[in-house]
């Protein structure tokens, strides 16, 4: 709860922080206080606050207040930072994400462009621009690595049912893998070294014969 409150009020807290730090330093350490030192201290604290996971919770339109929701036409749940260059024109719930990233799983080498992306994400997106003329439409975004599906809620439910079915089958595969893996064993490094040496000599012979 404290995290949510701080997340929602972070801008107000950081705006008030420089003055508060000035006053605190003047009172506590008047002999070393300078405005520059206070400003440096405030900047460092604000940087830390912004980095803190406690404050990285997205702020909802409801938390931003009525002025914001009226200005951007936001439903209460919307976490889009409208007005920022990266913001959507539509409204969105906070995405859910797997902590597992594409790069944690991918061995194809093709994930370079999106290696830090979560394996899967999902969020609800609402388009309501000039709603009286164009209506309001709810879509679900399903992200999988660099790919993004934008589907109707009905299609999202179909995807969910498919995933449920797949999860049951995946569980069987993982169980089977555990069983099969019981027969796995490490090789003998001495035999491996002898094998590599023999391979090296074989290739050397071939390349000398070809020269
Ligand atoms: Zn919005």
How many distinct helices? 8
First-residue to last-residue Cα separation? 75 Å
> What is the structural class?
alpha+beta
The level of helicity is 40-55%
Please give the radius of gyration in angstroms: 28 Å
SSE order in H/E notation? Answer: HHHHEEHEHEEHH
Task: State the oligomer.
Answer: single chain
Instruction: Give the low-pLDDT segments.
Output: none
Average pLDDT: 88
Kindly state the number of beta strands: 5
Small-molecule binders here are: zinc ion
* Major sheet size, sense and barrel closure: 5 strands, antiparallel
Shape descriptor: flat
The share of residues in extended strands comes to: 5-15%
Set down the secondary structure blueprint.
Blueprint: H1 2-28, H2 35-51, H3 61-64, H4 66-72, E1 91-92, E2 96-97, H5 102-105, E3 120-127, H6 131-134, E4 137-144, E5 147-151, H7 153-181, H8 189-210
Antiparallel strand pairs: 1-3, 2-3, 3-4, 4-5
The site of zinc ion has 7 residues, from loops.
Task: Explain what you see.
Helix 1 (2-28) packs antiparallel against helix 2 (35-51). Among the domains are: 1-57, no CATH class; 166-210. Strands 1, 2, 3, 4 and 5 form a five-stranded antiparallel beta sheet that branches. It is of the alpha+beta class. It has eight helices and five strands. The radius of gyration is 28 Å and the shape is flat. Strand 4 (137-144) and strand 5 (147-151) form a beta hairpin. It binds zinc ion.
